Amino acid sequence: LVILICLWNCFFDVLTPKITAIDEFYDEPKNSLDVVYIGSSNANSHFNSVLAYEKFGFTTGFMASESQHFSSMLHLLKESRNYQMPELYVIDITRIKDMVSVVGLEKFNYFDVRKTLDAMKLNMNKINAIYDLKKYVNLSSNQYITYFLSHLIYHNTWKKIDNSYFMNGDEGWYRFYKGFQYVPNANEIRPQEENIWHSDRLELETNSYVMLIDLINYIIENDLKVEFVIPDIYHSDYDISIYNEVISIIESYRLNVINFSTEHDFGLNHDADF
Question: 181: helix, coil or strand?
Fold first, then answer.
C-alpha cells in the first residue's frame, strides 16, 4: 500500500504548489550544508543564509514553512538527517504558542499545516508526522486522507499549469534563494515596537509538553548540536508567558535558547530596522 501511495503521489507531485523552503531543501546536494534551520516563516526572514555565506563562509538550508505546526518539528528534524549531516541545527520554537491554543481551544488551520506536510516526501517519517497530527487535533476522515493523497486537493491544478510551476524566483511559485525569502520592494510601514519581556509563565498543555520533551530527547539521544531561537518579532504577553515556560524546560536539559527579543547586543534599531 505504501509503495502504491508513493507512486501515486510521485505522479501528481507536479500538480502540488512548491511554496515553501522545504521544497527547496530537497534540491540541495547531499551533505552540503553546515547548518539546517527548522521553523516557521519567521526563519525565512530572520536569517539571511546568502549573506551568512558571503560574510562567514558557511552554508545553510531551511526546513521552514508558514505557520508550521509544532507536531511536525521532530519529523522535519528527522527528515533533514536523511539528506544532510550539518554541524548545527537551529530550531525556531515560536509556533509552540499556537499549539497551546490548538490543544486548549480546538483551533486548527488546516491549510497552513498542508504547507508543511505536502512539501515532505512520502516515506515512513511523513506517515508518522501525519499520525502525530491526528493525535493532537480533530480532523475529519476526508481531511485526514488528503494528507496521504494530496491529489484530492490539487487534482484540478493541471488547468493552471504554466512555466511558473517549474521555476523559482520572481516568475515562479516561490521566491526563496537558499532558504532566504527576499522582498524586492521597500514599503513604508509602522515600525515594530520593541518587546517588553516579562517573567510570567504559562504551563503547557500535556500534549504540547510531550511534543517538546520528545523533541528534546531525540536531540540528546542523537547527540545533535542545536540552538533553539526566538526571533525578535512582535510577541504578545500571552506568547511571552508560554516562551518563558518553554525556555525553562529546554534549559533544564542543558540545551541553549537564544532569545533575540531580550538580547540587546546585536546592534538592532527597532525604529529603523523593522
Answer: strand
